[in-house]
């Protein structure tokens, strides 16, 4: 009986230990990634592919004609107006990036190193995010009564006797465009830099002081090099946002300035979708080259 019971036990154990059909490890990984691949493919890759396809189509005032023509790229790259618009957009990008790096770094530095309590840091950081709870359009338009001819700035300067008449270039100018963009996008620089600075080991500062380094030497040789990944991530955010911005340029310049995204918007309003698609492809290539240049200079993998 004991032998029979032992045989039955072994048989059950074999049935339990012998698994049914199992996916290989590599197949299980692909199955787990399938939902994300489908979402990215449908909502990200497919639209980009369609833009690339449409950029080769022909068109007139009424309809699109599927074809394979390089006319749209020839018109885009061969037009001096297009090159001038790209240079103007790059000008905005460089100026806004410079100002957001300067402002964002010092705001993040203050929050990370001069505010000791974590709760106070979080409260002040949330205060910085409060304006972002409203629409970009509302925050942008809020500058109009401040910078206008009869706005707060001009009225205050005239009443104090500093200027005899209103300053015209405060609004509907490149200055207004840059000011609004800096206001809109500085937080995208503050956040990654603040995150990077909070990870710095404070004992490095003590070691630098013990070695005789001054405050500025610690900033230049310790803080800034360690903050480069955060600066790079913020730079990617700011560069891509400024290059793709059209509403700020349209509203704050009063139609006196242009950007590539605004040019594409005007082309789409005229039903010139293939021309706008060609511009979008060129803009995408330019932005990817700028992002690649940033990643070439700074390795951000440690922050990901």
Automatic annotation (TrEMBL):
It is found in: Cell membrane. Its main location: membrane. It is a multi-pass membrane protein. Keywords: Cell membrane, Membrane, Transmembrane, Transmembrane helix, Transport. The chain crosses the membrane at residues 36-57, 89-111, 123-144, 175-197, 218-244, 273-298. Residues 86-294 form the ABC transmembrane type-1 domain. GO terms for biological process: transmembrane transport. Pfam families: BPD_transp_1. InterPro entries: MetI-like (IPR000515), MetI-like_sf (IPR035906). Belongs to the binding-protein-dependent transport system permease family. CysTW subfamily. This is ABC transporter permease. It comes from Rhizobium grahamii.
